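Chapter review: from sequence to fold.
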Amino acid sequence: MTAEGLRTPPDHYAPRRYRVRHATIYTYDDDVEACYERGFLRPLETWSQRVVDHELTLVPEPDVFSEHVDHFGNHSAYLEIRSPHRQLVVGKTSVVDVAWPRPDLAALNTTTVAEAAATVAREADPLERAEYLLPSDLVELGPEVSAYALQILAPERPLGEALQALYGTIYRDFEYKLGATSVRTTLPELLKLRRGVCQDFAHLAVGCLRSVGLPARYVSGYVETSPPPGQPKLEGSDASHAWTSVLVPGGEWIDLDPTNDHFADSRYIVTAWGRDFRDVSPLKGVVFTEAKKSTLEVKVDVFRVNSDGTLS
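The token string follows.
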């Protein structure tokens, strides 16, 4: 056997530190007289991550800037710029320590999907359960979603096995294709198209879980990516990401990624969570301008911080 064959596979649950840079740049062909923006810029403090440092870059300097913690526990930022400008830059640099626990499949498999839903109904906070169980703007629970869900999340199926089947089935059934969907694409439309992006697949997984009585939320953040073998990682080549989290007996949330066919691990960095994308949009707002054209540029870097401080 070659040395390559003996190489130990990486432990994706091992603790690590990341530096995340995210810049959103709006450019207009005429003056913007005023803009009012709200977004989720600071990563969450969770059981799986700790924010070591966080810096914002806002150009032009806002006339008003404030932050608060929203209903879901996310850090919501608000800014107003009332001076004429033709470019808006909203940038952030965050350093985050990450260490996700490995899901205990043996423990999850001691209960079925139906038993888990009944246990969560008894144990969970009624308000939290309701808000992550009921339909939301982008996650409708119609017959198409229920039928798809029951093929995977059968009531008698062991829970851990069912969750693995959920992310694996969506991964196999759908093609990742940019531009195939929009923020207005419904789940029944997605089930017909059989193609989309991480946002769509996260919404579908949320809908399937809610359909069988398991509270589920949409998670927005980042995942570490690797360049092709032998090539350096390019600046600005990463992107934001979305996945799904489900509440299981005992009060634990289990995160799974149907876009990449596995449970979330220590490569995942959480920015915000909510009922669906509309609760956690990275940046949205209103501008007052006579501009006829505008462009949007997004640059994202997710680099691992090595023990000597270098990035990889």
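Two observations follow directly from the output. The mean pLDDT is 95. The domain at 105-279 is CATH 3.10.620.30 (C8orf32 fold).
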